[in-house]
Amino acid sequence: MYHLRDEFPIVREYVYLNHAAISPTPTFALFEAFRYLYEVSQHGSLHVNKVEEGDFANLRKKMATFINAEPGEVSFVPNTSFGANMVIHGLNLGKGDVVLSDSLEFPSTVYPLYKLAQRGVNVKLVRAPPEELEDRLVEEIGEGVKLVSVSHVSFNTGVTLNAKRIAEACRKVGALLLLDVIQSAGALKLDVKEMGADFVVAGGYKWMMSPQGSGFLYVRKGLVPDPPLYGWKSSSTYMEFNAEKFSIEEGPRRFEIGTIDVAANLAMASVAERLTPLRDEVERRVRELSGHAIDVAEDYGLEVITPKDRRAGIVVVKVDQPRKVAEELLARRIVVSPRGEGIRISTHFYNTEDEVDKALVAISQVRGRAR
Ligand SMILES: Cc1ncc(COP(=O)(O)O)c(C=O)c1O
Predict the structure, then answer these.
(1) For 2-25+279-369, which CATH superfamily applies?
(2) I want to staple 69 with a disulfide (CB 3.0 to 4.6 A). Which of 64, 97, 130, 332 is the partner?
(3) 29-276 maps to which CATH number?
C-alpha cells in the first residue's frame, strides 16, 4: 500500500492533511478521467456509448463491490446533497412524522429536512456533546420517527457513529437510516449490509480522492421506487425519446435523471477498484495516523476535541483563532482546515507520521502567537 504514495505528487509541495475538505486526485484516477475525455475528443459519441454500455454496468459493479452492495443499489450522483434530497423527499413523509438529526451535523443532512417541515413534518435535532451524541440519538429514536439523517463521521468533531447500533434502533421502531458517508467512504471499510443503513450517500471528492462531480448513492433494494424528481433518464424506455411514453425506471438510473459526470465517476470507480483489496489496511493506517496525531497533540498540551476511541481520519485540536492558525500553517506549506473550535487535521493512508509531527509542531508554536 505504501507504494501508492507515489500517486500523490502533492507530497512534494505540501504537508497535505486536508482530506476532509478536498483530496488530491491520485495520478492513476486522474489518468482514468483524462483518458475518457481524450477518447471523447477523438471519437465523440462512439466512446461515450461504449463506456455507458449496460447503463454503466462496469462502473456500478466497482462501486457496489467497494461497499458490499448490489450493482442495482448504486446510483451516481453529483454530490452528497443531491443524493440526500432524493432520499429525503422520496419517502412521502407528512404531518405528524418525525425526522431526526443533530445540531453538530454538516448542513447537507439537515437543511433538506427543513423543506419537509414546511409540510408539517416534525424535525428534531439532538443537541449533545460529541462523546454523548450516539447515545442521545439512540435514546431519541422512538415511536413516530420515520427517518434518521446523520453523518457516519462528523466533519467538525471527527466522531464516528456506530452505524449498526443506530440502524438497529431504527429497525425497532420502523424508522429508516440515511447515512452521509462522505467523511468515511475511502477511509473506513464500509459494508452497507453489515452497517444496516438503508441509504448511504457521498460525494467522491474527499476520502474517495476523486474529482468534484463524482458521487454515489446506495438505496437498499425496494426503497424509494418513485424518486421525487424526474428527468429524461427516469423512464424505463428513455432511449425511445418519446415524451408521451413514460414508465418509471426500476433500476438505479432512476436517481440519475440526466447525464452524469462520466469522467469524474470513472475516476471514483477506479479508486474504488484499487482500494477494494486494501480496505482493511487503509482503515488501519488511517486510524493509526489519526491516533498518532492525538498522541502528539496531547504531548504538546493541546486539547483534542475528537474522542480517541471514536476517531476515523479526522482529528480536531482546539485553538484560539483557528482561521489565523490555519493561515500561518499554510505559510509553512502545511494544509489543514479551521473547523468548529479548532484546527482539523485529516490524514489519509499515504500520509506519514513525520507529516503529522510537522503540523503539530507548527500548531503548538503558532497557537501562542494567535491568542
Ligand atoms: C459531512 C458532510 N456532508 C456533506 C458535505 C458536502 O456535501 P456536497 O457533496 O453536497 O457538496 C461535506 C463537506 O464538507 C461534509 O463534511
Answers:
(1) Aspartate Aminotransferase, domain 1 (3.90.1150.10)
(2) 64
(3) 3.40.640.10
Helix (H) or strand (E) holding 200: strand 199-203
3-state secondary structure of 71: helix
Asked whether 227 lines ligand 1 (CB < 6 A), one says: no
Ligand 1: atom nearest CA of 153 is 1
Cβ(18) to ligand 1 under 6 A? Answer: no
Q: How far is the CA of 202 from the centre of ligand 1 (A)?
A: 8
What is the chain's pLDDT, residue by residue, as a tens digit (371 residues)?
768 999 999 999 999 999 999 999 999 999 999 999 999 999 999 999 999 999 999 999 999 999 999 999 999 999 999 999 999 999 999 999 999 999 999 999 999 999 999 999 999 999 999 999 999 999 999 999 999 999 999 999 999 999 999 999 999 999 999 999 999 999 999 999 999 999 999 999 999 999 999 999 999 999 999 999 999 999 999 999 999 999 999 999 999 999 999 999 999 999 999 999 999 999 999 999 999 999 999 999 999 999 999 999 999 999 999 999 999 999 999 999 999 889 999 999 999 999 999 999 999 999 866 44
Q: Which residues face 179 on adjacent strands? A: 150, 200
Partners of residue 9 on adjacent β-strands? none
| Torsion 89-92-94-96 (CA) sign | negative
Structural domain boundaries of the chain? Answer: 2-25+279-369, 29-276
Q: Would the CB of 81 count as within 6 Å of ligand 1?
A: yes
Instruction: Find out whether the beta carbon of 80 lies less than 6 Å from any atom of ligand 1.
Output: yes
101 Cβ closer than 6 Å to some ligand 1 atom? no
Nearest to 197 by CA among 156, 161, 154, 144: 161
Contact present, 100 and 140 (Cβ < 8 Å): yes
CA of 245 to the centre of ligand 1 (A): 36
Whether 324 contacts 342, CB under 8 Å: no
144 close to 113: Cβ distance less than 8 angstroms: no
